[in-house]
Every structure is written in C-alpha cells, then in structure tokens.
Amino acid sequence: MKKISVLVVAAGVAFGVSATSCDSKKNVNLRTSVDSASYALGLINGDAFGQNLKTAPGEPIDVDLLLAGMSQGMKGDTASMKMTMSQAQEFMQTYFMRAQTEELNKIKEEGQAFLDQNKAKSGVVTTESGLQYQVITEGTGPKPKDEDRVKVHYTGTLLDGTKFDSSLDRGEPAEFGVTQVIPGWTEGLKIMPVGSKYIFWIPSDLAYGDRGAGQDIKPGSTLKFEVELLEIVK
C-alpha cells in the first residue's frame, strides 16, 4: 500500500495554492511583474495539485474548506482555526491510511467477485495460482520457457473496460524476457504456443499487488489482458 506523508501533502498544498484566496472568482488584476509571477505560480501549481487531488483516497476533498484552512494557516489566524496544527497532522495521517485500506479492500473484493463468476463461464480455465485464461486462437509453435525472450501484441484493461496499455496502439509489438514481467504474465506466456491469442484475467497478487501501477492501475486491481504470442526471439 502506498504511504502518504502528511508533511508532503501539507507542503504540496502550501505551494500549490499559495497564491489563491478563498474566493477563487474574485477579480485578478495583474498590475506588476510580481503580481503576474504570483498569479502564474498559483495557477500552475494549483492545477498540478488539483490533478493530484483526483487520485487521493477517500471521498472527494472539499476544495472550499481546503482553501479556507490554507488561508488561515498562511495568515496564522489561530482564532479562526478549527484544530491545532498537530491535530491536523495526526488527523490527516489517520484519515488517508484508513481511506487507503478501505479502498484497497473494496477493489480486492470486487476483483475476487468477478473472478468467482468468470471461472464458471464456458472456455475459461483457472490455474492453481488463480490465473484465469481463455483461448481465442491456439497456435502450433513451441511454448516459451523462463530463459526465453518473446515478442507479443497485447492490450491491457481494467475490469470496467478502461484501457491502460496497448502495443497495438503504439503500432509495434513488445519484446521482453519471460521472467521480466508480472507473475501472471510469466505463467500465462509459458502456457501459450507461439501463434496463440489468449485472454488472461490476472488477480492482483499476480499483477501489481497492493502497490498498483501508475494512475490507472489502483492497488489491489485485477487486470485483463488480450495477448497474442508472435514469436520466441532467437
């Protein structure tokens, strides 16, 4: 699970909205170069921080309350603060850790429910590890071994259909060692004869586990890959 540093979060907020007031619709007059620099700094970093907020665990952050707290903290307006700085630090650490755990458990439960239903479908095979696959086209070539390099075309999606990666979109096959990929891929590739096209459903513990990958693959995600094994690279 990803750990969130409250100090990093706090610093990001401070820098990202340092040039922003609680009233974001107020008229902005850029009369001097310092005015422009202040506004540009707030705009650029505010946009970046806003993008980061979209991936924060838990319910969406109330931006108006965030800005109110930011303004009071920057001005040192202790009379208006609803909690002390130490209370804020402690609360944020606990809140994000709890939200991360709840989100992780929910994603894992959804993935397991899908796999439980999917394994009963015609043509779906479940291996001892929990990997599931379905043969679309069965090739006649050799099967890769751990020491081999392979060339493949693939498309990876989340269970809701969101595509996060595709060699087809890049217009060229991917090439890598059989053991240089996630465990579900390594196991699946060694099942496929060259010339085959399979669909794999990979549980999180055979994929990216509790760490996730990038913005699209959240911790605990079950993944779907459509894979065509083109050749074993000599």
Count of helical segments?
6
The helix-strand sequence is HHHHEEEEHEHEE
Task: Compute the average pLDDT.
Answer: 86
Structural class, by secondary structure, is alpha+beta
Helix content: 25-40%
Biggest sheet architecture: 7 strands, antiparallel
* Quantity of strands, as a count: 7
> What spatial form do the alpha-carbon principal axes imply?
elongated
As a percent range, the share of strand residues is 15-25%
Spell out the blueprint of helices and strands.
Elements: H1 6-16, H2 33-53, H3 63-75, H4 85-118, E1 124-126, E2 132-137, E3 149-158, E4 163-166, H5 167-170, E5 174-177, H6 183-189, E6 197-202, E7 223-233
Antiparallel strand pairs: 1-2, 2-6, 3-4, 3-5, 3-7, 6-7
Helix pairs in contact: 1-2
Summarize the structure.
Helix content is about 40%, strand content about 20%. It has helices spanning about 5-15, 35-55, 65-75, 85-120, 165-170, 185-190; strands spanning about 125, 130-135, 150-160, 165, 175, 195-200, 225-234. It is an alpha+beta fold and about 230 residues long.
Task: Based on the model shown, name its key terms.
single chain; disordered N terminus; alpha+beta; 19% strand
Description:
The protein has 234 residues and is of the alpha+beta class. The chain is built from six helices and seven strands. It has helices at residues 6-16, 33-53, 63-75, 85-118, 167-170, 183-189; strands at 124-126, 132-137, 149-158, 163-166, 174-177, 197-202, 223-233. Strands 1, 2, 3, 4, 5, 6 and 7 form a seven-stranded antiparallel sheet that branches. Helix 1 (6-16) packs across helix 2 (33-53). The longest helix has 34 residues, at 85-118. The chain starts with 5 loop residues before the first helix and ends with a strand. Residues 1-22 have low confidence and may be disordered.
